[in-house]
Amino acid sequence: MAPLGIISALVAAIRVAGPLWMRAIIGRARENRASVELEIMSSTSRDVGELWNGEAIVRSMGRPSVVELILIRSRMDDPVACGLYTLENAYNSSPDQPDFELAPNISLNLYPGSGLKSMIGAALVGCILQLGVLAYSGAVTFYPGLRIRVPPHSKERPHLAREGFILLACGTLILTISLVIVCNVIETSTSEKEWSVKDSGNLRVIWVQREHSVGDQQFDAAVLFDNHDKMRVLTLRRSPNLAERIKRDQQSLKRDQQGFKDKLGQIAFDRTEFATLAGTVAALVGFIAQFQGFRFLN
């Protein structure tokens, strides 16, 4: 909620789900969606995968040669499968599902990540710090006696201190709400699925990587696995709405003559693009108002 990194968050939201004209403003009009997924998202696809480079798990463009195996201990007595399965078995069991050809999410399943309590604690600390700034600014603005006791021990209140505090409070509120919208846009750009065993027992995920090259990088053979059993396997993919936006952007670039409705639709075609536009504009307004408020308070 602090000003640090706000512009980076706005640029990330525009790159992920912004309309074509907003991406053109930041110089990303013809950017490949794979580059956006590689740098900003945590998902994998036919264009982006995760591999082991000998030191850590890295994301790379291209199709990695990695096989994801799932060991179900309760089915190890099966003479055919011996308890080893793949997500393709479950995904392709339904006739209305396409072939499962996407790269596995290694880091999402190998590392537990931040727990819910840790994220709530971090959010609470941020809220307390931000509210502390507002409380301190309001106290030294409306209580002259407190202003004398704290540095710089000034007896006189700045000429626009009252207006500055109003700008600071309103700008902080607008900025916080807009950042929530922007973060939600980035979060909804991917779709997460959870796979678990219906009958009983835990499972263990194993990733087998073959020695191969992806682009100009060479990756050695490796086997990755977690030391603990899991209750589920997670997959994170790009949202289907991104594919529709790519197709629509390509069509809009080919059109030479467009009517008023077409031009109006390019401003914000769907809810996600409208949320990106509204969140970005509101964040910039709140960002400017907040800093103007700090300026008037000094």
What does this structure look like?
Keywords: Membrane, Transmembrane, Transmembrane helix. The protein has helices spanning 6-17, 20-25, 33-39, 87-91, 106-110, 116-142, 144-149, 161-187, 240-254, 260-267, 271-297, and strands at 48-52, 57-61, 66-72, 84-85, 190-195, 203-209, 212-214, 217-219, 222-225, 233-238. By secondary structure, it is an alpha+beta fold. It has one domain. The strands form four sheets. A four-stranded antiparallel beta sheet has the order 4-3-6-9. Strand 7 (212-214) and strand 8 form a beta hairpin. The mean pLDDT is 81.
Give descriptors for this structure:
single chain, four-stranded antiparallel sheet, membrane, elongated, alpha+beta, transmembrane helix, transmembrane, 298 residues, 11 helices, two-stranded antiparallel sheet
